[in-house]
Write a structure and sequence with these properties.
Helix content: 40-55%
Structural class: alpha/beta
Radius of gyration: 17 Å
CATH architecture: Orthogonal Bundle
Shape: globular
CATH class: Mainly Alpha
CATH topology: Arc Repressor Mutant, subunit A
Number of strands: 5
Strand content: 5-15%
Order of helices and strands: EEEHHHEEH
Number of helices: 4
Length: 125
């Protein structure tokens, strides 16, 4: 019996979940589905500049799992860019991070909390 899949910890969902060529007439043909955890791996490694070990710690999985997720995500991105396919981000085995967790908070979570605290302090004054 296979081991149950661990939910990957994800900071937040993407603001947009559909990407592709602007001149594509039929959006239903050849849609590439990227999971939320693949999106998170791309965000952490390529955008935030983390090493795979740091990304694995943040997502609460093994480094080899992050490596596989990241490679799958890169293949999907390349297929979308090179072949002009629509890329849609949805699904997967993930859990959104809890903003009350103080350790290993990402920049987006910290920024979100900082903005909320500033708004709260402004309202108190």
């Amino acid at each position: 019996m296979p081991r149950p899949r661990k939910c990957r910890k994800v900071c937040c969902l993407p603001e947009s979940n559909l990407f592709g060529p602007l001149n594509k007439m039929n959006l239903d043909s050849e849609i590439i589905i990227m999971t939320v955890e693949e999106y998170e791996a791309i965000r952490l490694i390529d955008l935030e500049g983390m090493m795979q070990e740091q990304c694995a710690e943040r997502m609460n999985v093994a480094r080899t799992t992050v490596q596989r997720i990241y490679n799958d995500a890169r293949k999907k991105l390349a297929g979308s860019l090179v072949n002009g396919n629509v890329l849609k981000i949805e699904g997967g085995d993930y859990k959104l991070c809890d903003e009350s967790e103080e350790m290993n908070r990402c920049i987006r979570c910290s920024r979100h909390s900082f903005e909320q605290n500033n708004k709260y302090n402004d309202e108190k004054q």
